[in-house]
Amino acid sequence: NVEKEIADGKIFPYYQKLIQLRKEMPLISDGSYKGILLDDKEVYAYVREKDGQRLLVLNHFYGTDYTLTLPEEYVDEAAEVVIGNYETACLQKEMTLRPYETVAFLLK
Q: How far apart are CA 32 and CA 25, in angstroms?
């Protein structure tokens, strides 16, 4: 199983990318932490900030699509996807997360 995952799996490369980002972006490991959408039962969301950079992370833990509404201060249509487990994602005030979707946006 390990050899197969390393050869052509999706989980191992994803974790390699996470480790690489953690080394390249001090924001990820050293940035301040602020939880948002704290009353939401389906999404774990937070923002990390450091040296004028902000990273918004959204984690959806259920097997269905889920639409959420972001606070205005985190809506940034120019935000860049840093990492995610789906191919495309766009940051909007109302956005739908797919089953078990996790995405991190670098806010501009």
A: 13
Domain boundaries, the chain: 27-107
Query: Parallel, antiparallel, or unpaired: how do β-strands 80-84 and 66-69 relate?
Result: unpaired
Three-state DSSP at 105 gives strand
Instruction: Report how far apart, in Å, the C-alpha atoms of 96 and of each of 12, 33, 85, 102 are.
Output: 26, 24, 14, 12
pLDDT digits (tens, 9 = 90+) for 33-63: 999 999 999 999 999 999 999 999 999 999 9
Single-letter amino acid, residue 71: P
Q: Is the pLDDT of residue 68 over 90?
A: yes
Class of domain 27-107: mainly beta
